[in-house]
Specification:
181 residues; alpha+beta; Alpha-Beta Plaits; 2 domains; two-stranded antiparallel sheet; 6 strands; globular; disordered N terminus
Length: 181
């Protein structure tokens, strides 16, 4: 997040809708901006918890949410997730998935926790440049629009990754992993 880190982890239910950065210690205080504004990558208070069996169990049972940054340090990614929110999202996701299937590509769809949207995930067998994944997503979205000419896919919000490369000193955008209860 430009200009500073927030101290509320993604896993705190009351803060899930804020898209907050995980990995900050409790002593800082939930939901407050740091007094000194530093880039998240340079924050001296980083304390990323390990991804272990306990974290996975808490994610799967809804006690916490695990998120991931879409872009790797070398500006590649291993997935593309399309975010759909609001009225018509189910039909828009179906058109996106059908467009992908027409080209032999499988899409995993999950409903968001709010129930008012969803993510359509495409997983790559090997890392691909983030810019190429996003360009592919845009091409696929155009194919989906052609399948649904009466509707302009108005529920489409954005892709993860959101950028073609990592911002200087940043992590990119965080997305919650699927299968949370």
């Amino acid at each position: 997040m430009p200009g500073g880190c927030l101290s509320a982890p993604l896993g705190e239910p009351e803060n899930r809708t804020q898209g907050l950065l995980t990995g900050l210690p409790e002593r800082v205080g939930p939901g407050r901006l740091r007094e000194t504004r530093v880039k998240c990558s340079e924050c001296p208070h980083q304390a990323f918890p390990p991804l272990d069996e306990t974290a996975a169990r808490e994610h799967l049972t809804g006690k916490a949410v695990i998120g991931t940054y879409a872009i790797r340090e070398d500006n590649t990614c291993v997935f593309l997730a399309a975010d759909f929110d609001g009225p018509g999202w189910k039909e828009d996701v179906a058109a996106y998935r059908n467009a992908a299937r027409c080209h032999g590509i499988e899409v995993a769809v999950e409903r968001s926790r709010s129930g008012e949207g969803g993510h359509a995930w495409i997983f790559f067998s090997e890392p691909v440049p983030a810019w190429l994944a996003r360009r592919f997503g845009t091409w696929l979205m155009a194919k989906a629009t052609a399948l649904r000419p009466a509707m302009p896919l108005g529920s489409y919000d954005r892709f993860f990754p959101n950028q073609d490369s990592l911002p200087s000193g940043g992590f990119g955008n965080l997305i919650a992993l699927p299968l949370q209860s």
